[in-house]
Design brief:
Length: 407
């Protein structure tokens, strides 16, 4: 007896265009492949923005000093070496041309001849004399004579230009070395931000700390919400920046950063998170950029450290683990627990919903007062009608009695 054999047939789905793939339902598009999150500012503080199609490149040359300082170290060192080498070669060539035109190279060893530069017998010796002149080394073997006015003028020009080159390049290297970018490496931010209740209010919090013993002077903290928006007129604004209040009105944004601090943002009606609940937070495409600024105590230069938190790095219903403990005569900070959090009881509702629920809890008292006032207002017309009817009845009885008495 023959049996039916089931053959496995694979049906390939047609390849859809990009727009059609984006319009697929979330259960098919997002569950199959997690969409990569594009950051505006990376966790290490570097901005993830590249400038392209810059046609006015001459603006970089107009501020050549800042351009050189902003270059990478390998290019900076290469330019540093090349500037000095080209300068020495250029003036060495001019010294050799002067000696060649005057005929000093044809009278080498002639005691009766007065050369422009003594003991200059070729291009190599001219190059060495150029180095000695610009660096003011002066070994004493090659020296300019007073019988060469063109050489004296060239000596003055090379001395002045050499001083300018030294001031420019040494100043550039000094600024490059003393930049406080590495100081920002010891300013740390917590890996995650948290949302929980604090003093009966829903708050967004993150932690900052300084690993060095030398403090940051005049430290201040700022936060920005990076999220695309569409205006009422239909204008689309990509990566719109909105301020997040972290204590600007109360002065809490000015930090005394001796030990790790928890920066708190109260989610109120002015907060951009006013209508965002726990379920909505997981679906939001937003990024919170935090900026810590201050002056380095040792050098007095301004230092800035940055970090960011995307929606997946904001933990709803968590708090930071305490890291400060009191020891024998001092406080100790345990940086092993700097990024640790623990779960706490937090409602999943938005701050707006919590405020509405709180107002509803107080509503029965207000409703009882208003209802009583309305009932009294409704009863007053009925009572007035009854009083009017009683008065008319009484007036009618009095009139009847008067008529009877007359009869």
């Amino acid at each position: 007896m023959e049996q039916d054999v089931e053959s496995t047939i694979t049906i390939r789905q047609p390849k859809l265009p990009k727009q059609a793939r984006e319009d697929l339902p979330k259960n098919r598009s997002h569950e199959c492949k997690k969409r990569k999150i594009q950051r505006y500012v990376r966790k290490d503080g570097k901005c993830n923005v590249h400038h392209g199609n810059v046609r006015e490149t001459y603006r970089y040359l107009s501020d050549i000093f800042t351009t050189l300082v902003d270059l990478k170290w390998r290019f900076n060192l290469f330019i540093f070496v090349m500037v000095y080498t080209v300068t020495w070669l250029f003036f060495g060539m001019i010294w050799w041309l002067i000696a060649y035109i005057r005929g000093d190279l044809d009278h080498i060893g002639d005691k009766s001849w007065n050369p422009c530069v003594d003991n200059l017998n070729g291009f190599v010796s001219a190059f060495l004399f150029s180095i000695e002149t610009e660096t003011t080394i002066g070994y004493g073997h090659r020296v300019i004579t007073d019988k060469c006015p063109e050489g004296i003028i060239l000596l003055l020009v090379q001395s002045v230009l050499g001083s300018i080159v030294n001031a420019f390049m040494v100043g550039c290297m000094f600024v490059k070395i003393s930049q406080p970018k590495k100081r920002a490496e010891t300013l740390v931010f917590s890996t995650n931000a948290v949302i929980s209740m604090r003093d009966g209010k829903l708050c967004l919090m993150f932690r900052v700390g300084d690993l060095r013993n030398s403090h940051i002077v005049e430290a201040s903290i700022r936060a920005k919400l990076i999220k695309s928006k569409q205006t009422k007129e239909g204008e689309f604004i990509p990566l719109n920046q909105t301020d997040i209040n972290v204590g600007y009105d109360t002065g809490d944004d000015r930090l005394f950063l001796v030990s790790p601090l928890i920066i708190c943002h109260e989610i109120n009606q002015q907060s951009p998170f006013w209508e965002i609940s726990k379920a909505q937070m997981a679906k939001e495409e937003l990024e919170i950029v935090v900026i810590l600024e201050g002056m380095v105590e040792a050098t007095g230069m301004t230092c800035q450290a940055r970090s960011s938190y995307v929606a997946s790095e904001i933990l709803w219903g968590y708090r930071f683990t305490p890291v400060l403990t009191l020891e024998d005569g001092f406080y100790e900070v345990d940086y092993n627990s700097f990024h640790d959090t623990y779960e706490t009881n937090t409602p999943p509702h938005s701050a707006k919903e919590l405020a509405e629920m709180a107002s509803r809890a107080e509503m029965p008292l207000s409703w009882s007062i208003s209802s009583q006032l309305n009932q009294e207002a409704e009863l007053k017309p009925e009572e007035g009608e009854k009083i009017y009817e009683d008065q008319t009845e009484r007036n009618g009885d009095v009139a009847n009695l008067e008529n009877e008495s007359k009869v």
